[in-house]
Amino acid sequence: MKKSIVFLLLISINTLAQTKNAKPFVLGYSDEVESKILSEKRTLNVYLPEGYKANDTIHYPVIYLLDGGADEDFIHTVGLVQYNTFSWINRVPPSIVVGIANTDRKRDFTFPTSVDAEKKRYPSSGGSAKFIEFIEQELQPFIAKNYKANRQSTIIGQSLGGLLATQILFEKPELFNQYIIISPSLWWSDGALLKQNPAILSENFTRKAQVYIGVGKEGVWASTPTTPHVMELDANLLADKIRSAKNKNVRVYFDYMPEEDHATSSHPAVFNAFRLLYPKK
Prior knowledge:
Blueprint (H helix, E strand, L loop, with lengths): L5 E4 L16 E10 L4 E8 L12 E6 L8 H12 L10 E5 L4 H4 L7 H6 L6 H19 L2 E10 L1 H12 L6 E5 L5 H4 L17 E8 L14 H13 L6 E8 L8 H12 L4
Parallel strand pairs: 4-5, 4-6, 6-7, 7-8, 8-9
Antiparallel strand pairs: 1-2, 2-3, 3-5
């Protein structure tokens, strides 16, 4: 895996708008990981917490952000992380944020669908198994090797990213301690994930996990499944399903935001998630 770090600028440098004293405003770093599993290079946008030093003994939790490109959700999510780690707020522990920039999110965030209309509409879909393998076998080891990460990890996913985060929770729950699932596209393949009986529901599941599920007033989202799926209802069904677990190790928070829609849910949901996952001290 080749590492190539360059500055990631919060603002575009426009020479016509600069004064002679203008300098780049640096938010984080852009790194690169060579994936043999995906057969491509993937860009990672990385935010390091205040006081991060490569040569000290402190290690930090890692927040993995799907749709983590500089022109996607990286900048505004990092702002929420930084805000909540200010010393006068001290809600969220200082954390590393790893934004995974997309190349083909419809491919990476979906499993094979049984709905013909979805196959036609999303011809590249169905590659989530490989993407999860990439996260487990290449991305997380890369971060552990090159950054001062501890064993606490969170994943944030919205829409199809929320679908993927739910799939990981059901199939590979050990990959993360916390799941922030926003407006998940659970309608995919006629609600196939909601029909699963995942290990997290069993009495023998002993790993601690916290799950936040946030959704706005979003209505019907589907290609043409046998039964229409309402986003709010499916998200609520997911929360109820997790609550039905026979163990007490998985805690779920459901957050309905009627003032938000699919386009606006992400930012307030992450803010609310931090409030719920990290109660005031």
